[in-house]
Amino acid sequence: MNAQETLFELNEKFNRPSLTFGFWQDSELPTAYIANKFCKGAVTLFGAHILSYVPEGKEDVLWLSQKSIFAAPKGIRGGIPLCWPWFGPDPAPTHGVARIQFWQLKDAVVLPDGSDSLTFELSVNDPHPLKVNMTVNFGAKLTVSMTTVNTGSTAYKLGDAIHTYFNIGEITQTTIRGLGGAFTENRVNNTDFTAQDAFGFEAETDNIYHSEAAVTIDDPVKKRKILVEKENSRTTVVWNPWIAKSQRMADFGDEEYHTMVCVEAANCSVDRIDLAPGASHTLTQKISVIA
Ligand code: TA6
User: Fold this and answer.
1) In terms of C-beta distances under 8 Å and separation of at least 24 residues, what long-range contacts does 37-43 make, across chains too?
2) Scanning 33, 105, 170, 259, which has its CA 20 to 30 A from the CA of 59?
3) Is pLDDT above 90 for 266?
4) Across-strand partners of 41?
5) Distance 88 CA to ligand 1 centre (A)
6) Going by CA atoms, what residue is nearest to atom 15 of ligand 1?
7) What is the per-residue pLDDT across 202-211, written as a single tens digit (0 to 9) for each?
8) Which active-site residues does the annotation give?
9) How many independent structural domains does the chain possess?
10) pLDDT value for 63
11) What number is the average pLDDT over the span 235-259?
């Protein structure tokens, strides 16, 4: 089925006042557009990748590179890449296969509070027989849940992350709060340290915080605080590429590091999840603007 036929089928099956389907910008990525009393949002079937979350009366909470490619099989730069069923560069492709494949939209419902929930599904056999469902609720919060089921006959060590790119005013004025005391791996210089409760940014930052705590992103430039809560996540990844790495990435503008930060609910490094045959695990991240 081609992209136009996919769109036609999606509109036939799920179209309603708060949910329509089209292509994302000038791409051929079939995308669900949500508009309800809480927010506007967008999520494409490619990677089940959430592209936008705009709470009523506020700016988009998610960041997208102006240089992102919106064409399979290249992963989208920004929004919420889903890293699954592994996190990191080893093995290739970095952060797994989920974000570079088309998922199936299984369900789309309006909840009693008027928010919209969509559920996407992907099944793989390589590197292991696994199924994953991602449910996103576009409401007063943006709630993303990824449920993995081990459909194989042997155990699998699952790595996953909801790799959210946040839209901020200026990285050098942004403060991350809530990770105090966490054992932390610095992936830039391969050292480790104990995290401060509040920290800012003055260089490339690529840290794995072994913490289950909620995080607040304090953005004085946009005059807002973003609360990032999570469930069933034993690590939080915080990333800003800074100057040199930004210049090395073709799909990332040289100056774009100023206006983004990644805060990712994850299970990675030594905190991957041992999934027995038939077992399941759900990773959840909840995002809200609190001030
Ligand atoms: O989550 C941080 C990180 O692992 C960084 O090391 C950087 O590679 C980032 O993810 C982006 O990864 P990507 O594969 O999207 O370029």
Assistant:
1) 37/114, 38/114, 38/115, 38/138, 38/139, 38/140, 39/138, 39/139, 39/140, 39/142, 41/116, 41/138, 41/142, 43/118, 43/120, 43/136
2) 105
3) yes
4) 34, 53
5) 7
6) 77
7) 999 999 999 9
8) 163, 264
9) 1
10) 98
11) 98
DSSP 147: E
CA–centroid distance, residue 175 to ligand 1 (Å): 20
**What's the confidence (pLDDT) of residue 219?**
98
Q: What is the pTM of this model?
A: 0.98
Fill in the amino acid letter for 105: L
Query: 94 CB less than 6 Å from ligand 1?
Result: yes
Q: 65 CA to middle of ligand 1, Å?
A: 14
- Kindly give the number of the ligand 1 atom that is closest to the alpha carbon of 262: 1
User: Measured from the CB, is residue 262 less than 6 Å from ligand 1?
Assistant: yes
- The pLDDT value given to residue 3: 87
Residue 90 or 147, more confident: 147
3-state secondary structure of 103: coil
Atom of ligand 1 nearest to the CA of 94: 14
Summary count for the chain: helices (H), strands (E)? 2, 22
What would the DSSP string read from start to end of 51-67? Answer: EEEEETTS--SB-B-TT
Sheet strand arrangement including 49-55: 19-23, 30-35, 39-44, 49-55
Mean pLDDT of the chain: 97
What is the reported pLDDT for 1?
82
Length, in residues, of the chain:
291
Question: 185 in ligand 1 pocket by Cβ < 6 Å?
Answer: no
- Please report, for the domain that includes residue 220, its CATH number: 2.70.98.10
**Cα 48 to averaged position of ligand 1 atoms, centre (Å):** 18
pLDDT at position 71, please?
96
* Nearest CA residue ID for atom 14, ligand 1: 94
* Mean pLDDT computed over 234-242: 98
Token pair for residue 10? 């999606």
- Banded pLDDT at 291 (limits 50, 70, 90): confident
Percent of the chain with pLDDT over 70: 100
Mutate to test the pocket of ligand 1, among 64, 80, 95 (most ligand atoms within 8 A of CB): 95
